[in-house]
Amino acid sequence: MRTRTARATAALATAALFGAVGAVPASAEPSALYPVTSGSLGNYTYDLQYGPGVTDDGKPALCSRTTMHNVTLSFEPLSTTSCHATGGRKLVAKRRVLDLYGFSSGTGEGLFLSGDTFATAPKVQRLVIKAPGTKRKTLPRSKSTVLSIDGEKVRFFYSVELVTDSEYATKVLGQRKVCKKVKLKNGKVKRSCGWKTVADKRVFLKS
Known about the structure:
mainly beta; five-stranded antiparallel β-sheet
């Protein structure tokens, strides 16, 4: 299932098709970038980084740099950098889940590489993603990394997969495991655990 938000640009996939190298926009000024995930899948290699930065008018921003390459093609890897204003507020406070720009790369036929990134509070242990007409998708903590963005700890969940079609996320829930002791009828005490939603306010950042 491809869970990218509907705001993700088709132009990025087109640029990958023709082998264009994404130039850094004037508004994208990362002060530092840290690795979130990298690897290879099918015919593709990918590298995703996030970090703090500023917009073109000097406002605090969350920046990303994505590099993708179809190793079967002679084109140069596609590298794109972008920054999105944070408004100077805490990124993941008050149950916020940041739905960040996804990325994609393809040749227009068959499978193409698709990636999604979401940011939550460090206490979140798993992310549950729901999209119409599909089974819910769960991202475990092993599919995440914690970075410091302007002094704030942020957990970035990521999903990278080969897909043939698009399904856009309509709900994203950040959950953590909560346990309590339950007294049974026979007097014994049993430890009962379950998942509690601690982040469910889906937010998009402005460019």
